[in-house]
Amino acid sequence: MIRLHHVAQTRSFRVLWMLEELGLEFELVPHSFFDRSLREPAYLALSPAGRVPALEIDGRCLSESGAILQYLAETRGALTGTAGERPDWLEWLHYAETVGSHVANLTQHHIILRDPSMRSPTVMRLEAKRLEKALEGVERRMAGDWLLASGFSAADIAVSYGALIGQRFTALDRLPRVAGWLERIAARPAFRRAAARDGAAAIYTQAFYPPPEETPHA
Ligand SMILES: N[C@@H](CCC(=O)N[C@@H](CS)C(=O)NCC(=O)O)C(=O)O
């Protein structure tokens, strides 16, 4: 049995959605960021840094979402794009972390650091801009309806997760192709099934987290 260790709204959603796209049966094991369970020795045996996702599959456990998407696509023979598209497919799978790193930094400053004195308004503004720049790269390079010309692939899952969460930190007004892509994604039956299994929102509870205003110099 495939078993996915998951926290709602996190990168493990990529894997949840991929499993739904592939039509695989799996057990979903929900975890929380707020009860220290990801730091228990039993969980650290599954995920060395105590993070989600962790996917128990084929007699072992994988804990990098990009590697998991690639492994699932390659071993289950689906959502890989064509052979000729392989360099682009790999590039997008990893570009997901260019987007994801800004989302993670913004999440730290807007949400995880609860005491405002620990937050950096400069980092919040800078990271929102850098996220927008990373999404502009998607806007410019999308092949058509999806990232690859041959159609929907695991690359769309990897990158769009960052854009879906990222739009809570940077508006997509100037990125119409990205906005249209997210609408197509939201209409996919497997995405809807994954969203229904994701769990209650405990991290992102606001639709938008605006960057702090710049304080005018006196
Ligand atoms: N590179 C890893 C990053 C995994 C990761 O940082 N996951 C976050 C959720 S998005 C996590 O589990 N954070 C919990 C923590 O840092 O304690 C991946 O893509 O799977």
Automatic annotation (TrEMBL):
> Which ranges of the sequence are coiled-coil?
none
What keywords does the record list, in alphabetical order?
Transferase
The molecular function terms of the Gene Ontology recorded here are: transferase activity
InterPro entries listed in its UniProt record: Glutathione-S-Trfase_C_sf, Glutathione_S-Trfase, Glutathione_S-Trfase_N, Thioredoxin-like_sf
Residues in domain GST N-terminal? 1-80
- Kindly provide the name given to this protein in its UniProt entry: Glutathione S-transferase, putative
